[in-house]
Each structure stands twice: as structure tokens, then as C-alpha cells.
User: What shape does this take?
Amino acid sequence: MYQATMHSSELLKGTLQTIVLKILADHGKMYGYEITQRVKDLSDGTILLTEGALYPTLHKMEAEGLLKTETVLMGKRVRKYYTLTRDGKSVVQEKVREFAAFMKTMSALLNLQTA
Amino acid sequence: MAQLNAQHIDYIVKDLTYRGIILEGFRDEVIDHVCSAVEAELEKGVRFIDAYHHVLRSFGHTAGLRKTQQQTLRYENQKTKIMLKNYLTIAMRSLAKHRFYSFVNVAGLATGVAACLVIVLFIQHELSYDRYHEKANRIFRVNGEIKFADNHYKLAVAPAPLADALLQDYPEIETAVRFRQRGTYLVKVSDQAENIRQDGVVWADSTFFKIFSVPVISGNAGKALKEPNSIAISRKVAEKFFPDGNALGQSLILDNRWNQKVTAIFEDMPVTGHFHFEIIISMTGLEEAKNNKFLANNFNTYLLLKKGASAQALEAKLPDFVEKYIGPQAAAAVGGDFTMEKFRAAGNKIEYTLMPLRDIHLRSDLTAELEANSDITYIYLFSAIALFILGIACINFMNLSTARSANRAKEVGVRKVMGSLRSHLVRQFLTESFLLSLFSFALAVVLAWFLLPFFNSLAHKELSIPFSDPVFYGAMLLAAAVVGMLAGLYPSFFLSAFKPVNVLKGQVSLGMKSGLIRSTLVVFQFVISIFLVVGTLTVNRQLNYIQNKKIGFEKDQVLVVNDAYALSDKVEAFKNEVLQNNFIKNGTVSGYIPVNGGWRSNDTYWPADSEPTQENMVGMQGWDVDYDYVKTMGMTIKLGRDFSREFLSDSSAVIMNEAAVKQFRFEKDPIGKKISTFGGDNPDGSPDRNSIKSWTVIGVVKNFHFESLKENITPLSLFIKRSNGYVIFRFNAANTQNVIAAVEKSWKKLAPGQPFQYSFLDEDFGRMYASEQRLGKTFAVFAGLAIIIACLGLFALTSFTAEQRTKEIGIRKVLGASVPSIVMLLSKEFSKLIGISFLLAAPLSWFAVNWWLQHYTYKVEIGVLVYLLAGVFAFLVAWLTMGYQSVRAATANPVNSLRNE
Assistant: This one.
């Protein structure tokens, strides 16, 4: 798959949900393409979400009730916006906390100077 | 921001569709994403087509796009609730759409499951016998086997002194109890005149309550039954005789003679036990229990072993025990140079074994059982029938589902094209199958609920569905799941394997092509059905044979008045008074009648002209009768003469049956020969060799059956002696009510206060074969069920094939085929299958029938006819079933089936 990132996709795998949830939590309603762009901007181009990973994840989280969608008709195109549900909002906090704790552990484990 | 124009968007939409992006929800999203990304590229001045391909690359081209689509679909479907709801909705719709098939499926399966459920309840009930005794696994009954002088006895009873001697010699026995049964008793409360006939009366040792878990609700279990003339009674009896509730300490009078004090009241014994006592009399009052006779076996003896003691080890010591206690008495009885070794070497046997309590109900059919037991064979038989019927029902289910597959092939094709994965289809079909199975089980419980009273009357049971037991629901659900799974597995995998290309082109194997398995299943169903029909016919023919066989006496129009001893010295007066009625032909007084329930008395005799030795002794039934016995019973004197009052010497005369003549080797000229037997016992219990009684043979009676037809006719002799068991009348009247009324009137007059109990000899005779009759009826019912289920399946299958071949039939008719030839065409296939079934079922049933008939010494010949009958029957039923559908299809107007082409 197309992957031009500075971070390896292996590292990203477990964090994809967290990233998407967090971005939606910070910016509210977003559509798929917008999310990829936002991630790219925020990470200064070091993280590129592949479409192949993004859409299955979005649909999965929708199925799990973390996200809800609304579609807007734009001429010939249909745009699908994702927002967090109440469940989703509580999960974001949890996921971020969890990830922070994980980073702390990792830095201790790998003896890194700064997190 | 640069906006894409309409052509560009159309291009993208078309191209993506072409690449196979069709998933609803995902498709629009991808289009929007691609458009947005392309717009961003256009912004940088890239050409549309380059931008588009660049974006596509980021998706991984067609392969990547499809992979993402599939992944999305998979994730979406993990939405379990929605998924299940979806499957359920579709399943419901599909079932509702094919109402006929669904109905056949549910009806067939429900019938099968209901039958199975009833049988499982029955088996469970049978297996639970005697489980209520807490010490059941330490309780053993002493069984005896005695083989001597052409007699072979297998006994549930042991000698009176055996229990004490065992207790004394073997410390591993904790305690023992003996029972002595002497039939029914007349019971009354001491200050009342009215007697009531009471079943379930037994003499027992006071250790009874220590061994068996029968709770005492009033009185002291430890002290009850210790004194002579004390009894323990059941709650039921206490309520019957002492309705005001203070039974303890009161007295009951048994048989107008014995005054017995109630020392304990015990809870009614559960149905699931091999004995049900109502009144237990203290053994201390029974003289017979105190003697030292090891050669008379009359006591049902139960041992309670100590914890950890091995029954096998104890059993292994019993031959020595026999040697030590029984050997000397046997030597004294037989005389001469008797030793146990010689006795055994001559092929004789005295042996005692231990039988676990829990085995008695199903595995014991010995002489002198406390009650008639059931038989493990029935358990096996019923289990097999239950499995068969469930099997047939499940097969129907699978058959119909796969048969329907042809109709659903297109559905499968379209679903697959629309992106269904195989696992989705499997799940879909399994859901349908589960749903049907669940319906069927629910229906089955209702059906079983209706069926159960019927079955109960058939099997003499009081089974009920355990509605309050959560385990029952769990088990039913689990069974429904398993059956649904088993039945649905094959069709679901078979259907889901279709290749959409082939299906949509119409190249899928339709109808009977995939029918090998289906044919096998139909064959299997009909093999079982034919087997059950043969079984039913056989059992009923044997019963018929028994009813109509010449049994050596006339059993019809004979009234048997029970408890003649209640008349005491007025027996003759009663008999004579009844004989005054002109519709009474004969009457006789005797305890010995040739059906179950009559008295029996076995003794050893020898030809009077020789000394008694092991070789010439004959074990023989000696029946005490009066002068009118042979006449009243309608027996035939073959040689010599009947007893007659004109001969004073007849008090020492004997009439033998043919079997006895043969045994004594009197064939040449039996009349005038003499036989002898011991007239008394020594104080130690052995027979007194100085006291010998002799009789002269005056006649030979034709062999008559006095035991079940399972048994051979053994030697028997009639003696003139009073035995007040029954008064038997042969009557000659169409209206039996008049007969009963007249006899009862005389009874009331001569035996006031005594219960008048009667039966008819033919009914008593019939009762000996009650279990066969039950078996016959049960077989018929289940054979019927099996055939109904199999035919339901066949009906649905034929209607399905007919539907499949509508066009073919139409074309054939247009080309000039006649209706009969089309009916033939449609029925041919299944007829062939039934033919094969018959060929398979015939040898199978032949084995089974022979095995069953082996139990009977006197049995009916089962000719080829029975098999043919069963085969023709199955064939006819199947043809009728198929005929309707075939004829309907054949007579349809070809225009209707062809106009759509």
C-alpha cells in the first residue's frame, strides 16, 4: 500500500482509532478526506493516514456506536460527516489517557530522555 | 477551491463502479474522498486524469479499493445486534414466503421431537428407580439359582435363616432385612365390621427403616416393628383407616384374625421404587421366619454392606457358605452318599448371588419378585425408536432444505454478486434452520403435553413434563440448537458453495441431480418405517396367537371370586347357593388357577416303587383342587378318569398332566402307577425320611398352560384337597351383569362385611400379556408417527420435484404424453427408493422379529406375508402421498406452464 510516512505503519496501527477519535473530539463534524488532511497538517506530514485503513476504522467505530454520521448532498456528490456520540466522547478521554500512560511506560522501558 | 465539473464527477463515479466499488455507504464516501483529493491536486495545476490516477494510487488502485471495501463490510457486520436482526428478518420473510415447506418442516420436526420428548421422559423415569434410597449403592439383594431334578429356578428369594447366618459369618455386612409376601389381606379397624382388601402387605424385619430411606412421619423408626403383632403403615393407609388422624398406637385386624398395633406411620413410598408397601408387619410374629430350613426359599433378602465393602468379594465367598449351611440339609433330604461335589457334577446347582438394588427394576425378572419389574430391553427399544423418529424428522428437515436449494440458487447468486461472503450465507441459512428448529421445539412441547396423558394410559405411568425445572428449558434449548445446527449445516454449506456465475447462467445442478444424499435419506426413512410396521404386525400377531391358542382350558365365561378364605367354613355353602342359579354351569373351589396370581406349590416326588434318589426325583407342581375343578376349567382328561365323589379312594388319587407322565417315565401305562413325597420335616428343617405319602394315578389331563406362553409346560398334578383361594364359576349367560349380581348377593349373605372381589378368567389371562399388549400398541403408535413424518417429507419432496419439472411436463404434454405416463414419470424415482428401502428393511426386521420371538416357547410363524404386507403398506401410503402431487402436475394445462417462456 502507498505509504510515504516517516513513522512506520506498524507503530501507527494501534493508535489509529485514538488519532481519529481525538481529532473528531477537537474539531467536531468532519468527513473522511478532511480527517486525512488534518492528520497530515497536525503531524507536519509525518503521519499519512491511508484510505485503506481509515474507512474500515470509521465504519467499525460507527458500528460500535462511537461515531454517528450525517450525509449532506453536494450536487452530484454525497458527503458523509462523522461526529462523536456520547459513548465516543467518553472513549476519547480514556484512549488518550491510556496512550499517555503507554508512552510513559515505553519511555521508561526504552530509557528515552524525553517523552 | 477548484470545483470538478459534472463530466469529471460522472467519470469518477463510473470508473469506480467499474472497479467494483458498490457497497452502499462506502461508495459515496469514496467518491467524495476521491473528488476532494482530485480537487486538491487540480489546485496545484495537475491535469484531471493525472490527478485522478494519483489519488487512485493512494487507495492502492482497484485491488486496494476492493480490499478496503471488503474490510469495511466486514467491520460493519460485526455490528452483532443489527446483523442478527437482519438475519432474523430475512429468515422470517423467507419462511413466510415458503409457507408450505415451512409448515411441513415444522410439523414434521415437532412431531418427531414430541415423540422423542415423551420417550426421553419415560426412560428418565425408568432409570430413576430406587434412586431415592440414600444407601442404594450399598444395598444388595440375595438372588438364588437352584437347578435340581429337571427344575431350574431363578429366585428373588432366599431361605429364612440365610440373612442371620450371613450376618454372623461375614462382618462386612452391616445389617440385613427380609421380606415375606403372602398376597393381599383383608383389613379392618378393630371395632368395625367392614373389611377392606389391602394390597402391598408384607412381613419385614425391623431393620427395614435402617436400610431403606423411607421416612417415618410418626412413631419411632428405631423401635417400630420390634415387637410381635406390631405394624407400620403408610400415610395413605393411615388416612384410609383412621381419618381423624391418630393412627399411632391403634390396632388393625388382618384377615379377621390378627390384631396388630400400629407402631409407626411412614411416608408413602415413591412410584420410582421396585416395591410399594402399604402395611409392614413385624417379622417377629411369623413362625416361618424363625425356622432353620435352608431348602425353602421364601424370603426376599436385602443386605446393607459396610462402607467400602466389596460386593464382589462377598459374592465370591458365598459358595463356601452354601457348602457349610445348605450342604448338610440337602444331604439329609436326598439321602444316600450325597456330597455337594457329586450334586454339582450331576449338573445341579445351588447358588446365591448379590444384585445391586438399582439394577432390580430393569434387570431382574425372577420368580417371587416383590412386584413385577420392568425390562431393560424396553429401555433400549424405546431409545432406538426415539432416535429413529428424531432421525427421520431431522432428515426431512435436511431434505426439504436442500431440495429448496434449487429455488434459492438464484438468490444465492444475486447475494454473492452483491458482495455477500460465504460466511454470511452460511449464517443466513443457519439462522433459518435455528428458527425453524426453535419453532418446532416450542410446538413439540405443546404436542407432548397433549400426547402425554395418552402415553401414560398406554404405558401405565404418570409422567409429566417438568415445566418448573429450569434444566428442562436449558436442555430443550440446547437440543433445539443442536438439531437446528445438524439439520441446517449440510444445506447451508451446500447452498453457499454455489458459484454465482454458474447459478445466474442457470447451470446449477437442479433438482434430483444433487439427489444422492437426498435419496439415501429417503431410503433411510422408509427402512425405519417398514421396520416399525413389521414390528407392529409381529407383536400383534403374536398377541393374537396367544389369545387364540388352545391353552388346554376354556378361559371364556369363567368368573373368579377372590379371597374365598373370607368365607371360612361357608365356602361350600356359597358355592352351592350360587350353583342354584340356572346360568351357572359349574363351580369349584381352589387357590390354584392357571393364570398369574394363582397359588403355586412345588414339591419333589418320586415313583413309589423305588427309593428317592437324585436320579428319579421329579420336581412338580402339586395343585390342591376339588372334584369339580377339571370340569369347571374345561380341561380335557386324556386317559383314565376325572376325580369322582363316588370313589372314596380318590382322596389319595392324583391326576397328572402329560408333562409329568413323561417325566416319571410312565408313558406305557400311567393309570394305577403310584408316586410318593415326603410328608413332614425333621426339627432341623430337613425332610423326614420316615414320613412318606403316596398317591395313585387315576387319570392324565391334557397339558394346559398355567404360566405365560414364554414358559414350557412343566410337570403338574392335581390332588383332592381343600384350598380356599378362589371360588370359580363357569357361567352360560349373555348378560354377565346378572351373573355378577347373583354371585355378589350370595357373597353378601354368607360373608357379610367382607369385600366382594371378582375377575374374569380370560381377563386375568390377558393381563399376563399386558406388557406385550402395551408393546404392541406403543409400536403401532410410533410406527404410525414415523410413517406420517416420512410421508410429510415425501409429500413435500414430490410437490417440489413436480414444481421443478413444470416446464418439462408442459412440453411432454404438448408433444402428446398421457396423464398416466406423466404420473408414472414423477412417481418412478421415489418408487424405486421405496423398493430399495424394502429390500434393506426386510432382513433387518427379520433379525429383530426372530430375536423377540425367541423369548416365547410358543410362538406364531411370521411368514413372508407380514413383510410383504409391510412393504405394500409403505408403498401404498407413499404412492397416495405422491399421487396427489403427481396427478395435479400431470393434469395441469400446459398453456399455463409454457406461456411464460
